[in-house]
Write a sequence for this structure.
């Protein structure tokens, strides 16, 4: 249990250090980087919502077919 906890703490700390290094060494300014990240994340959200809606429609049609 202690080993797993140590691993999780180490992974979290490594992630924080990596994120900080990426932000500090980014070739873009802060506002431009935030704008680009915001555009990317909103695109991902739209893709996920679209995939979820498509999957839901498929599941509903399968449910209706099973109920007949």
């Amino acid at each position: 249990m202690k080993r797993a906890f140590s691993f999780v703490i180490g992974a979290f700390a490594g992630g924080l250090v990596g994120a900080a290094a990426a932000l500090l060494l980014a070739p873009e300014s802060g506002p431009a980087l935030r704008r680009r990240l915001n555009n990317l994340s909103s695109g991902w959200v739209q893709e996920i919502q679209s995939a979820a809606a498509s999957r839901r429609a498929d599941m509903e049609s399968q449910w209706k077919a099973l109920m007949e």
Remarks:
- Residues 2-67 form one domain.
- The CA atoms of residues 44 and 50 lie 10 Å apart.
- The mean pLDDT is 88.
- The chain has two helices and no strands.
